[in-house]
Amino acid sequence: MSQVVCLSFYKFNALQVRLWAFAMMGLARKQIGSVPDIGFWKLCGSGIGEGFTPVPNTAVYAILTTWPSEEVARRRMSESNIFKSYRKKASENWTVFMTTSSVRGEWAGTTPFVEADLQGIGPLAALTRATIRPSILMRFWKRVPNISKVIGNDPNVLFKIGIGEVPWLHQVTFSIWPDAAHMSKFARTGPHAEAIKAVRREDWFAEELYARFSILSDAGTWNGKSPLAAHTEKALESV
What we know:
With 239 residues, the protein is an alpha+beta fold. It has one domain: Alpha-Beta Plaits (2-Layer Sandwich). The chain is built from eight helices and eight strands; from the N terminus they run βααββααββαββααβα. Strands 1-3-2-6-7-5-8-4 form an eight-stranded antiparallel β-barrel, surrounded by four helices. α5 runs antiparallel to α7 (190-202).
């Protein structure tokens, strides 16, 4: 079996359930940590925008988890009361199931993802997680919105979001691309490439992790459909 990484997104509309979701950032920790077979996990809020963003989005929350296999992941998330509660209260939810293609760096002092022996041939996902040094916060947030704007305008990106554990300081970007070529082109050009140079030159991050994933499958919808639907339809047309 290969480790499976799941990223689940939940959208909350009414103020009451938004307050519930915010409270669960602290209250859900014990319940999620006690779910059988769960490995590494993180509860995350989200930002308004497509990447790192300083403005919180109180309607969207995410849960990152790792499991021994996709079968185990689906069963545990289906049966566990804490995941049932999130799905019941959310107006919409979507989960993507992945295996790790490559990973470097650490998250909270550990490397949580295990590279898989077998890689898929479908869409790829990229995840960047960083702990930003407080001393450079203002410089960081002046630079990063340009990256979010560019990725949001890129017609090739299938899905993009900025999430995080602690506003301003602990940030995560997650995006899905049709293939490695489109992903690499974005990474090598424009504001993103300039920001990477600044990260190294000015030592922005106290801790950082970069991971790429192969998409196995997904469940649920986001904005009324699977974010992978357009790619699947295009692939079927080309057969």
